[in-house]
Amino acid sequence: MERMKVHLRKDLGWESIKGVHIRGKAFDCTGLLSSLDLKCKMLNISKFEDFVNLIKILNGFFAIIVERKDGAIWAAVDRMRSIPLFFGHKGNQGFFSDEAQWVIDQICVPELKSPSACTDFLFSGYVTGNRTLYPSLKQLEAGNVLALIPDEKNLKIELLEYYSFLHGDYSTETPNDLLEEQDRVVVGVFERLARAAGGSQKIVPLSRGLDSRLVVMMLKRLGFKNVLCFSYGVPGNREAEISKKVAKELGFHWEFVPYTPELWGQYYHSNLRKPYFSFAHGLSSLPHIQDWPAVAELKKHGIAENGAMFVPGHSGDFLAGSHLGPDFFSNKTFSLDQVIEAIFEKHFVLHHEKNLSKLPSPLEPNLFGIKKRIRSQLKAIPIETPADGASAFEYWDWKERQAKFIVNSVRVYEYYGFSWWLPLWDREMLRFWQKVPLGLREDQWLYKEYVTRVQQICQLRVKESLKVKFQQDIKLALKNIGLIGLARWVQQQAQCKLEPNKKWIEYQKHPLGWYTIIDFDRFSDFYTDKEKINSFIAVDIINSRI
């Protein structure tokens, strides 16, 4: 009997030779590596330590599996887990795949979903750590390498985190010097994108946000050709209106995919949903639905060319500090308990407490298990100052939400046969932001200042409406005079007491139009204005309705 079995979806671009399997593209100090170059490097390695050291120097988006002659398997994912890998074992026989369900099928152990994993999934949309919804199925986390080593009775599993998104060694340069350094980094990032994309069509999901705007501005600045921008949602929504203006001023073609109840029904309430969801969730993350119909429509109508590369703007705002609450900037000291509470309040938000009895999984008392797991993940990180606390908070966010929820959205491009690249998650971007002092990331100051400069270079004149600016000014004023907490409390009270007609308005008028995939009676019974579309989908996945 084979000690190890590896199963890979060949349609996703895996290249294999002599037991070395590679997917994606990687750079080293010499430039873009061909698949043959990378395979040769892997074949010349005899020690796991050398394998780890090689992975450390790679930049790009990749997954690598090496089947050793001694029966062991070495594997690695990039710093963002952009290509998920799953593994499990039965006795001393190991199973390894990019397809979660295949591993479960090989193990053939009838088992119930893990209650703690279901709790994570229901409240955040993903399962934390290297777990999945099933106890026997594990996954590689962001920045991890793995060795599966068989012996006579059991399977030895060695996991190592070769990269950690932790801040430190803060720069003492002036803000202006940092802005100039940031520009050098970003230009290098998009030069690598040019080499990775070649002559293929570049497709940007363009919103009104800074991230996707920076992407299209850099494409314009560096002279990229064959660029398509697109947006979607209910006709007339603000995101689309601003997206169209930005694309027009930059001279890029723009397409809009209107979302209607009929279109959502065509995708969600049909045989299109199950295969896509099964492909995308990997028994560990919510499938991305936001631009699912849009990508499908672009392909169906031939607007997205065969071989096109999607270039989404994940996640410059996160790197720049957008997830950090005001306590990180106002407190003089910080503790592990404060970080845990901040993570819990920020990320485990898909359900209101009043709906706990309606959820399908037996939940842990007071959701205590979630905080216990967060503590175990962060306990080795020294936390004394707000900068320490912010670093620990963003480390958890990077490893969990960004890798498993945000980056996992690229599954929708793969499903329809397209490639993708995530320029704002380039290794050099991570290195740059890891050394930016906390104070320059308050309200994303350094990032916003940089995007403004690039906007001036590109002579882009699109601005937010007076209404949006007024709302921002009011929020800032409330924060400055200390009433933001009171304003939030008033808002929360109003949200918890939504009248039926207000629920009907939210059901019908959401800018993406997606609540109509849910029966209104169920929506009205469950919705408190804390729930999101992902709240409903998470329940359905745990209930195995999907």
How is this structure best summarized?
The protein is an alpha/beta fold and 546 residues long. Helices cover 45% and strands 14% of the residues.
Describe this structure in words.
The protein has 546 residues and is of the alpha/beta class. The chain folds into 2 domains: 4-161, Glutamine Phosphoribosylpyrophosphate, subunit 1, domain 1; 167-462, Rossmann fold. The chain has helices spanning 35-43, 48-57, 100-107, 115-124, 175-197, 210-221, 238-250, 261-268, 273-281, 292-300, 316-319, 327-330, 336-347, 368-378, 386-406, 411-415, 427-434, 445-457, 466-480, 484-495, 500-509, 520-526, 533-542; strands spanning 4-7, 15-17, 20-28, 31-32, 59-67, 73-77, 86-90, 93-97, 138-139, 144-150, 155-161, 202-205, 227-233, 253-258, 309-310, 419-420. The strands form 3 sheets. Strands 2, 3, 4, 5, 6, 10 and 11 form a 7-stranded antiparallel β-sheet that branches. Helix 13 (336-347) runs parallel beside helix 15 (386-406). The longest helix has 23 residues, at 175-197. The chain starts with a strand and ends with a helix.
Question: Which labels suit this protein?
Answer:
single chain, alpha/beta, Glutamine Phosphoribosylpyrophosphate, subunit 1, domain 1, Rossmann fold, 2 domains, 23 helices, 14% strand
Sequence stretches where pLDDT stays below 50 over 5 or more residues? 465-470
Number of helices: 23
User: How does the helix and strand content classify structurally?
Assistant: alpha/beta
User: What is the global morphology?
Assistant: globular
Number of strands: 16
Oligomer: single chain
Number of domains: 2
Estimate the strand proportion: 5-15%
Nearest-angstrom radius of gyration? 23 Å
Question: What's the N-to-C terminus distance?
Answer: 35 Å
User: What would the average pLDDT be, to the nearest integer?
Assistant: 91
What is the CATH topology classification name of the largest domain?
Rossmann fold
Architecture of the largest domain, CATH level 2? 3-Layer(aba) Sandwich
The CATH class of the largest domain is identified as: Alpha Beta
Give the biggest beta sheet: 7 strands, antiparallel
Helix content: 40-55%
